[in-house]
Amino acid sequence: MPVKNTQDFLEQAFLKALGAAKPSEILPVSLATVFKNPLAGRCLVLGAGKAAASMAATLEAYAHEHWPDTQLEGMVVTRYGHAMPTKTIQVVEASHPVPDAAGLDAAQKTLDLIATLQANDQLIVLISGGGSSLLTLPASGLSIDDVQATTRALLRSGAPIAQMNIVRKHLSAILGGHMAREAVARGAKVDAFLISDVTGDDISSIASGPCAPDDSSFTDALRVLGEYDLLNSQVPQVVIDYLRAGERGNHPETPKSGDPIFKNVRNHLLGSAHASLEAAANYCRSVGVTPVILGDTVTGEAKDVALMQASIAREIYFYNAPFARPVALLSGGECTVTIPPGVKGRGGRCTEFLLALLAATEDLPSLAALAADTDGIDGSEDNAGGWFDSSVRKFAESKKILAKKYLADHDAYGFFKEARALVETGPTLTNVNDFRILLIDSES
Predict the structure, then answer these.
(1) Contact 11/423 with Cβ under 8 angstroms?
(2) Is the four-CA dihedral 67, 68, 74, 78 of positive or negative sign?
């Protein structure tokens, strides 16, 4: 039987994926597992990311019930509009994806709070996607302007997040394991709880791993800039000079695997993209649709990924192979969008993927799809993503809203706004990267 309401089906699958990543659901389970006995004494809480405020509020509620003898205090930094009410843990808002002065001040205060730690104090660090820019503290000799310019250049280059973070870790005084190094030097015990937004759930890449070992080097950071042709003019010369000086051994490297400091540091992975895909898959099964998880590590240019998934959908639609309809193709990960010089663009990688998919599937008029960022914000605008089905396709055609034209202008937001097919959730207060679902339905 075909799905009766395709829009509702797509949105419910997305909501199930979000539910599997809610801090209020996943953090208490991990806290109970990690801390077998109630904490007592001083517990400093620090953190950064789009889910940092909701993680802090959840931790406060858990501590109030289970750790009555704990002195809980601290601060977390999150993106503008992502705050939640808290009692003893201060919440600061700052800019993402390009850092600003508020993030700089918060990062410095974070380091100042770490300096107050004493032997046997407990440090709990709450980390989620977005922390790299929200916790920006330039290394000595660099300024916030230098880091901002470098971040903008990397964002426009199409570099994957893992490679961006290699550069950012080597320009930072707090990322790339430096936070853990400072805390352990004062005798504190460190437990970091992480909600992953990176492909493969690499803890050194989630928010640039403030409490994780980093096995990349200054040489690797320079290699990334060279690979994306950023060594000439787009990145400030002072940044390049700093990295080259680090390569020569003039600046301290990030702490590596095997460093003794990590004997006193534990990193705990909570929500992940794959867990969210599994939750969406369970929903699909419940309504009679076969789910196929293509993976939570899908990367590459958004338009190229769309063409690949269109070819799979086409095979299923025309040949019922390798799966019989109705089928839902599910995937996570983080695509990239390379913006040519002189093009402003509107939207993000999710809507860019979706628009490219729509443009590439004129021979699949019944195809339905949704793509959205699980943090609730896709790229440059305030929507989480977009969706389409046969009704959206017909409406766009009737209004002469041409997918290929908008795609050429990198204006995916403009297309789905005009087509009345934006997905708008507001900040979800979590982040496990992108969610994509394609429905190849059975015939009615």
Answers:
(1) yes
(2) positive
Which position has the token pair 């999150």? 78
Task: For residue 91, list its beta bridge partners.
Answer: 76
pLDDT in tens, 102-155: 999 999 999 999 999 999 999 999 999 999 999 999 999 999 999 999 999 999
For the chain, domains (ranges, CATH) are 6-15+273-440 (3.40.1480.10), 23-137+172-216+254-269 (3.40.50.10180)
Helix (H) or strand (E) holding 174: none
46: Cβ contacts below 8 Å, ≥ 6 apart: 74, 75, 76, 110, 113, 114, 123, 124, 125, 126, 179
User: Quick count: other Cβ atoms within 10 Å of Cβ 223?
Assistant: 15
**Mean pLDDT of the region 338-345:** 87
Q: How far is CA 315 from the centre of its chain?
A: 31
CA distances from 156 to 97, 99, 329, 389 (A): 12, 15, 29, 30
Per-residue confidence (pLDDT) for residue 268, from 0 to 100: 97
Give the tokens for residue 252. 């301290």
Tell me the two tokens of residue 324. 């019989």
Instruction: Please write the tens of the pLDDT for every residue from 73-100.
Output: 999 999 999 999 999 999 999 999 999 9
